[in-house]
Structure formats: C-alpha cells, structure tokens
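Aim 2 progress update. The chain analyzed this quarter is reproduced below.
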Amino acid sequence: MARSRRRVVERISLAGRLQLHRAKIRSAMFPYAWQRLINEIRKQVEQYSLMCGDRDSRLSFTRFVTGEYLIRRAQSYPIIDLTLSLQQHLFVEFKYNYRNSDRTDTDTWGDLISLDVDEHDRTAFQYKDSKFRDEAELAHFLLTPLTDPNFVPPASQ
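Predicted structure tokens:
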C-alpha cells in the first residue's frame, strides 16, 4: 500500500515538473513566436497589397505605441479591421471589427490564441482545437476575413 502511494506521489510530482518545464519554455519562446508572427503577417499584407490591383481592397498595416497592431481593409465598404495584441506575454488576442455600410452597426468578435509546447519541447500556436504548423499558416488564418471577398462575419451567418 505504501509502495503504491509512493508511486502515485512520484507520478504527480513528475507531472507537476513537466507542467512547470513546459510553462518555462512557453514563457521563454513566446516573445520570439510573437515577433515571427507579426513579421509573417506584415509580409503577407505586403504581398496581398502588391497582388491586389483594386485600390479599395488593399490592406494597411499599422503598429501603435501600445504594442498593438492594426491591419485594415477600409478604402470602401465593407470595412474590416483586425487588431492584434499580446496579452500577459502568453496569448495573442485578436479582434475583428466589420461594418457593411455607414447605415449598419459594427460587428465585433475575437478570441485568444495560445502557444502550445509538445512532449519534444516544440512550440506551436493553438486556437481552440486547431494547431498551426507555423506562423505563415496562422497569419493566413487571421488575414482570411480581410482577404476573402465572400467573407461573412460570424454574427451575420
């Protein structure tokens, strides 16, 4: 009985150490992953804007002194913005604002994306049940509402 209890305590202790280890890796790697994500988004915004012949569909990329980033498609309606910010150095917060015309209300939605650490200490961004292979895949996911001409906001679906 005592031997069984000791094994349980050892397993719990090992699980706790593993959880602490992953938290340290996440904390250390998040600033680098965040910067890679921002660089990738900037690159994709520039590529999209160069490919886009229609001036009204071009995207703008702005960094604020607060550390937030704004990506906007706003030359004409529908207007859509994406704001990205770093939360507690552990999450990427994204918020969208969508307005179909000057006579409609603005639809707003957003969520948090975390950085996951696997058993081999590799990191990957995770949103709900989706893990993104790299920053390019996550950037594409985040920019799709701005680049897809058939996009309909979640509140309107």
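The mean pLDDT is 85. The beta strands are 60-63, 69-73, 79-87, 91-99, 107-117, 123-127, 130-131. These observations will guide the mutagenesis experiments scheduled for the next reporting period.
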